[in-house]
Amino acid sequence: NIRSYLFNKSWDVVLEEKDFPSGMGHGSLGIHDGDISKEFLKAINKAKTPFVYSWFTVSTHRPYDYKGKKKNLVPIQNGFINSLTYSDNVLREFFAMASKCSWYDSTLFVLCPDHSHDSHKDYGPGAPEFHKIPMFFFGKVIKPEYKGKNIEKIFSQIDIVPSLLYQMGLKENAKKYVWGRNMFNPSTKTYSYFCSHDFGGMVHPRGVVSFQPEYLKYAYYTTPNTTVRDSLIQVVQAYQQMVYKDFMEK
User: How many other CB atoms are there within 10 angstroms of residue 37's CB atom?
Assistant: First the structure.
């Protein structure tokens, strides 16, 4: 239901497969990143500033059926590792072309996955490493004191928008994102909720836990202290309840 989600969020422009020229490289999930990158650039060049555009890439998602030869690099998740090389080259070419456009110097780029998955390191779905994702900001608009800065604290995708709004001085707008936090505020409490089809969990300074309600057992935990462990599970359950309550009321 990604299409319904995007229209519900009131984007002014939503482009899907039927909107692009026929004959473009196509996999089971959509048009290959290498082909769509050029169309994405065309769309941005037609936009009026200021703008917010989003490109949902697909080539690093299973089944990794992008065009091109794959090398035998790792015994597990070889397709995924190869796809990173492919998409990395696509992004390199995209930024090389974008750097020649008039809007480039005043644009902030945010790169972030929507989720992670199993890897060649073979983490189980209950482990936090299974859900760990990278995120970075890129662009000439970044203040000098933030360039090259690596934030090691625990955050998730829901913190991106309010963090940027606070940086832009739009505090009242940022406050509307009640579940998000300001990543650049040194006093911000850090934690991250994660979930899969049959369990929920949390990465927290006090430890990491994930729990399977159907089987009433822990899927993963890092702290041997049962009191802390049970306390974190209660936080996870409360978080789930309040998020769904908020969703239903809106």
Answer: 21
> Can you tell me the mean pLDDT for 17-29?
87
Return the beta strands (E) in 60-216 as ranges.
109-111, 136-138, 192-195, 200-204, 207-212
CA distance 192 to 115: 13
The residue behind tokens 């065309």 is 42
Burial class (CB in 10 A: 0-12, 13-18, 19+), 64: buried
Question: Given the structure tokens 């933030």, which residue do they identify?
Answer: 146
Cα(217)–Cα(213) distance, rounded to whole angstroms?
Answer: 7
Whose tokens are 């009191």? That residue is 227
Mean pLDDT of 4-12: 84
Q: What pTM, to 2 d.p., does this model score?
A: 0.87
